[in-house]
Structure formats: structure tokens, C-alpha cells
């Protein structure tokens, strides 16, 4: 019985029959390239799931705290300071934040608060920070949430849904992407294994033409 070669390599003058050494070197190179791709893929997937998990945990903690603060006592306060200030970063691009102060009377005592919300405003644009505190101009009277157990703790605003959109949802999206990447990696591995089994990398010698 005569066997015909299964492959013809472009650029060769005739049929090229791969030797066992050629097949072994090709298999080793293929496995090395595949291992490198899988390692990079795993690093990206691991980074996504860690970042997503961190955002989810931080967002969930802020959401719980904001929901609790929303139930605190509300008091009228007067804004005494609303400035945009530069944060003290040295060898970095300037970052700006808001400096807020307000006063209110509690049981005959003048109290001073400094906290706008749970998350501190940070931006590279001072104009963006100014827009976020536009509703708290000096002399204006607004409502603040005051801790009934500790009157020195207060916040001007609390919105639990903000942390859902800003932290929890992005964290879930990143973890979902990581999960899909793992599924794709599994499908590709199974596909490669089936292809190698069907066409594949035989341990024995390929019959040569007689």
C-alpha cells in the first residue's frame, strides 16, 4: 500500500515529509507559544477579577454606610466655607478636592461639620469640583444628616445609589468579564485537545511513501 503525504508546504519544490525530529520541535514550539498565551491570559483575567472584587466590596461597604446615614437626624446647617483646594501630592499631576465647613446649633451648642459625603471629591479639573459643590455656596442653609449617637459626625448628602452605579456595578461587570474569559479559555482548550486528537501529534512515525 502506498501512502500520500498529508501536507504540502508552500514554497517547496516538492512534497516535504516532516521527520520525527521536525514534528517534535514543532510540537515543543507550539506548546511553548500556547503556554505563553495562556499565562498572559490568566494574568489579565486575575487582574480583572481582583479589581472587580475590590470595587464590589468597597461599593457594598459605602452603600451600607450611606443607607444608615440616610436614616440619621436631619438638621438645618449654614455653609461657612466652600472652597476648591489642591491636594498635597508632590511628584504627580495636581488633584483638586472640596473643602467644606458648616455650622448648626445642637442643644444650645454651636457645632461645626466638615464632611460633604462618604466619598471625597477628587478631580484633576478644579472646575469639575466647583460644579459639584455649587449647591453649597457660603451663607446658604441646607439640610445635613447628623449622627444621633455622636453629634460631631455629620454629612451634607448621602445617596446610596451613587455607590451602586460608581462601584458595585463596575465591579460586577469586571468579574463577569473575567468569568467569560475563563469560559472562552476552557472552550479553546477543549477545541485544541479535540483537534490534536483528531489530526494530531502522534507519538509514532508517520508512514512514508514506498
Task: Show the helix and strand layout.
Elements (H helix, E strand, L loop, with lengths): L19 H50 L3 E14 L9 E11 L2 E5 L12 H7 L8 E6 L7 E2 L4 H40 L11
Antiparallel strand pairs: 1-2, 1-4, 2-3, 4-5
Summarize the structure.
This protein is α+β, with helices and mostly antiparallel strands. It has two domains: 37-70 and 160-192; 73-157, no CATH class.
Key descriptive features of the protein:
210 residues, 5-stranded antiparallel beta sheet, alpha+beta
How does this structure look, described?
- With 210 residues, the protein is of the alpha+beta class.
- It has two domains: 37-70 and 160-192; 73-157, no CATH class.
- The chain contains three helices and five strands, in the order αβββαββα.
- The chain has a five-stranded antiparallel beta sheet.
- Strand 4 (141-146) and strand 5 form a beta hairpin.
- The longest helix is centred in the first third of the chain and has 50 residues, at 20-69.
Q: So what's the overall shape?
A: elongated
Q: How many distinct domains?
A: 2
Percent helix: 40-55%
Q: How many individual helices?
A: 3
Task: Report the radius of gyration as a whole number of Å.
Answer: 32 Å
Assembly classification: single chain
State which percent range the strand residues make up.
15-25%
Number of strands: 5
> How many angstroms does the end-to-end distance come to?
8 Å
Mean pLDDT: 79
Order of helices and strands: HEEEHEEH
Amino acid at each position: 500500500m502506498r501512502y500520500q503525504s498529508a501536507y504540502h508546504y508552500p514554497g517547496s519544490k516538492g512534497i516535504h515529509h516532516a521527520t520525527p525530529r521536525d514534528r517534535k520541535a514543532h510540537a515543543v514550539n507550539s506548546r511553548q507559544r500556547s503556554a505563553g498565551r495562556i499565562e498572559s491570559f490568566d494574568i489579565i483575567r486575575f487582574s480583572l477579577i481582583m479589581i472587580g472584587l475590590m470595587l464590589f466590596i468597597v461599593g457594598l461597604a459605602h452603600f451600607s454606610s450611606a443607607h444608615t446615614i440616610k436614616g440619621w437626624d436631619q438638621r438645618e446647617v449654614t455653609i461657612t466655607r466652600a472652597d476648591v483646594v489642591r491636594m498635597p501630592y508632590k511628584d504627580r499631576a495636581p488633584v483638586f478636592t472640596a473643602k467644606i465647613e458648616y455650622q448648626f446649633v445642637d442643644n444650645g451648642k454651636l457645632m461645626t461639620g466638615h464632611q460633604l459625603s462618604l466619598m471625597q471629591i477628587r478631580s484633576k479639573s478644579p472646575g469639575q469640583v466647583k460644579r459639584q459643590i455649587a449647591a453649597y455656596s457660603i451663607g446658604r442653609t441646607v439640610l445635613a444628616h447628623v449622627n444621633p449617637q455622636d453629634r460631631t459626625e455629620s454629612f451634607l448628602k448621602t445617596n446610596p445609589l451613587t455607590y451602586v452605579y460608581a462601584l458595585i456595578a463596575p465591579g460586577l461587570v469586571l468579574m463577569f468579564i473575567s468569568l467569560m474569559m475563563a469560559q472562552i479559555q476552557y472552550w479553546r482548550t477543549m477545541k485544541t485537545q479535540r483537534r490534536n486528537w483528531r489530526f494530531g501529534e502522534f507519538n509514532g512515525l508517520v508512514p512514508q511513501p514506498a
